[in-house]
From TrEMBL:
It holds the Pfam family ABC_tran. GO terms for molecular function: ATP binding; ATP hydrolysis activity. This is Sugar ABC transporter ATP-binding protein. Keywords: ATP-binding, Nucleotide-binding, Transport. Residues 33-286 form the ABC transporter domain. The lineage of its organism: Bacteria, Thermotogati, Deinococcota, Deinococci, Deinococcales. It comes from Deinococcus cellulosilyticus (strain DSM 18568 / NBRC 106333 / KACC 11606 / 5516J-15). SMART domains: AAA (SM00382). SUPFAM superfamilies: P-loop containing nucleoside triphosphate hydrolases.
Length: 365
């Protein structure tokens, strides 16, 4: 049974937004990533219990089929950082494995810099870099500098270029104190900085980042975000970022692709989805005395969220009233000592999309 979002994906419009197609059309030769009608179906052996079931499965296996990716089409331009988000099991990891050449698609077409990534895995590997937040490409017992040197040799990076990049990465990622340390002795944040250096030491044209800031503190996250942003801007590296940390998306991406049940339900500018769903703001007032909310007149487009003691919190629609109008309306009725305006963040916006989809499914059921 399709989830709510996947059911809505079949419609050309979802909450007034065009979800099926985008305007990111570029000449074929300029596209780092070009995905057309991609499909991936897994055949999963169906096992019956007991010895007889095992024997039957050995000689006459039965399968159930799971569609992990269904009719995906999208493109990523040179130097573009695209957020690729969705719930667990939506099809994100399967897509990345197909783009990197690990898996062959069941249907459709994938071109990475004009190549089929599965049929041209060696050539494809030279032009891409991959960071998995839960896996490492570094040698556990070697000093970091030795791992980086080995990776550079594998990719035939000239010694002079390797030294230049090592100096640059040591400065921007603060690796000087880590170069002589075995990877196994590093903290999680240090390992992720080391992983980024290892991924970019051969100067790939495309980088896939899977949860690059998972488990990191605020300072470590910001350092890694700044580094990724710099690589994209200065070297025109194309980045496809999958993450559950929407802070990464807001910091790095102008465009997002939302996927659910193997289908794209939104592909477009982050600003568009913010403007469309982020219409409500929250404003909190601190008053000189306890309010009697039964006598309080609310401005047009506003609703009362809470009133505790001398704190009053309202939610209002910015298309119907501005923050100054709401504040002036409340100030005419009571003595306001201070107020604070809260803008909607991406987390709340994505939650609205999922909640709205579920409500529509219930209405249509």
């Amino acid at each position: 049974m399709l989830t709510a979002l996947s059911m809505l994906a079949a419609s050309p419009m979802f909450f007034g937004l065009n979800l099926r197609h985008n305007n990111y059309n570029c000449p074929m030769e300029a596209l780092p990533i070009d995905v057309q009608n991609l499909k991936k179906i897994f055949a999963i052996p169906r096992k019956e219990p007991g010895l007889m079931g095992a024997v039957k499965g050995l000689f006459k296996p039965e399968y159930q089929y799971k569609t992990a990716v269904n009719d995906l089409s999208f493109q990523v331009r040179k130097g573009e950082v695209v957020g690729y988000i969705g719930v667990n099991g939506a099809g994100k990891s399967t897509t990345i494995k197909i783009l990197t050449g690990i898996l062959a698609p069941s249907g459709g077409q994938v071109r990475i810099l004009g190549r089929d990534p599965f049929k041209n895995r060696v050539a494809n590997a030279r032009d891409i870099g991959v960071v998995f937040g839960q896996r490492t490409q570094l040698w556990w017992d070697l000093a970091l500098v030795e791992s980086l040197r080995l990776i550079a040799r594998m990719y035939d990076v000239p010694d002079s270029r390797y030294k230049t990049l090592l100096e640059e990465f040591s400065e921007t990622l603060e690796l000087d104190e880590l170069l002589s340390k075995p990877v196994r002795t590093m903290s999680l944040g240090q390992k992720m900085r080391a992983e980024l250096a290892a991924t970019l030491i051969h100067e790939p044209r495309i980088v896939y980042l899977d949860e690059p800031t998972i488990g990191l503190d605020i300072m470590a996250k910001q350092r890694i975000r700044d580094f990724i942003k710099r690589q994209s801007q200065e070297r025109d590296v194309s980045v496809l970022l999958t993450t559950h940390d929407l802070g990464d998306i807001e910091e790095l991406c102008q465009r997002i692709i939302i996927i659910d049940n193997g289908q794209i339900i939104y592909d477009g500018q982050l600003s568009t989805i913010k403007n469309h769903f982020g219409t409500h703001r929250i404003i909190t007032f601190e008053t000189a005395e306890t309010l009697n909310t039964s006598r309080l007149l609310l401005p047009r487009g506003a609703e009362l969220l809470s009133a505790e003691g001398q704190k009053l919190t309202l939610k209002f629609n910015r298309s119907e009233a501005s923050a100054s109008q709401v504040a002036a309306h409340i100030m005419q009725q009571t003595d306001v000592q201070d107020f604070q305006l809260q803008e909607p963040d991406l987390t709340s916006i994505i939650s609205q999309i999922y909640q709205g989809a579920l409500q529509r499914e219930k209405v249509g059921a």
